[in-house]
Amino acid sequence: MAMQLASEGCWSSPGPVRPAGADPWSARADRTVAAKTHRYAARVSRSEASAAGLPPLAGARRASQALDAPAAATSGPRLAEAVAGYQRIQAVDRAVALLKAVADSTTPPNVLELAHACGINRSTAWRILRTLEHHGLVDRDTITQRYTMGYGAISIAAAVADDALVRRVRPLLEDLAVRTGESVTLAVAKRFNLVYVDQVDPPNLMMPSWLGKSLPLHATSGGKAFLAWLPADERAAILPKDLQRYTDRTIVDLGRLNRELDTVRQTGYALCVREYEEFSSGASAAVLSSRQYPIAVINVWGPAPRNPAKKLHEIGREAAQTAQSIRALLD
Predict the structure, then answer these.
(1) Residues 38-69: tens digit of each pLDDT
(2) Which residue of 72, 136, 180, 198 could cross-link 150, Cys pair, CB 3.0 to 4.6 Å?
(3) CA–CA dist 153, 249 (Å, integer)
């Protein structure tokens, strides 16, 4: 049989005779024979955690362990974990970890800082970063050797549809609607305004739809939650010089609006008490990126008589908690 296999190109040379008494079904014996007979084969070395059958670990530092899921797991949760582990590719895991590390850094990091943050070898990090740089996903300063996100990432980010975000966060919006008993909307930034992309109404209540609409930033709780986390220059560029009045309570003085936005940053939520419509009030909280930039806004609103100031503050805290949960979900 060995000579036949050699003639067919499967082995480069006849294999050795298996030691007497060896278990023919032993994985260890099979690996030993393969390593000695196949010039491209190598003995498999597993970590102690993998050999013990522990579940795959998440995170950049644990990517290699996650890929080394135990092959001995043949049933139950361990099988699912093993299958899930083998579906992940270590090189891709590391590339994604490096991209996220660059995106999350407040100052441009160098390769040593990125390697340490992701728990990978410096030379490996350097090779992956060179590949990402080739594709325009990161940009390297030739003088400082520090990395920032590249323009190639813009086209990828622009392709993300609102539907993907809505599907992921809708259960959290539904939970917030049940807890507060009011309508909950999700708004995302579009150019220089907020557009509502999802709405969840509490059971047994019929509310008007705000989907697809854009509302004034200075006269709504969602707009103020968004403005509060913008850099001062961006805020100044977005807001018109003359703020339009919608009700007697609308804030049209820029100095007073900026003071309220400072309060929003401290409390984590914004309020709107009959400022856009006489009959409605609401509370909102921004979903922030790792750089504290608003990427979406959670709004809770309802009839003004049903939502006095004290209740609005309670709703605002609930909205802020949901915003933090969404941020964790997007990581």
Answers:
(1) 433 333 333 333 344 333 333 444 443 443 44
(2) 136
(3) 42
Q: Range with the lowest mean pLDDT among 1-10, 158-167, 266-275?
A: 1-10
319 and 176 Cβ atoms separated by less than 8 Å: yes
Euclidean distance between CA atoms 215 and 98, whole angstroms: 37
Q: Which residue has the tokens 């393969």?
A: 34
Residue 4 has pLDDT above 70, yes or no: no
User: Using an 8 Å Cβ cutoff, are 183 and 199 in contact?
Assistant: yes
Task: Provide, for the chain, the percentages of residues in helix, strand and coil under a 3-state DSSP scheme, each rounded to the nearest 5.
Answer: 45, 15, 40
- Amino acid 249: pLDDT: 94
Asked if 83 and 71 count as a contact pair (C-beta separation under 8 A), the reply is no
Q: What is the pTM of this model?
A: 0.61
Distance CA 156, CA 172 (A): 26
CATH architecture of 163-330: 2-Layer Sandwich (3.30)
* CATH number, span 90-157: 1.10.10.10
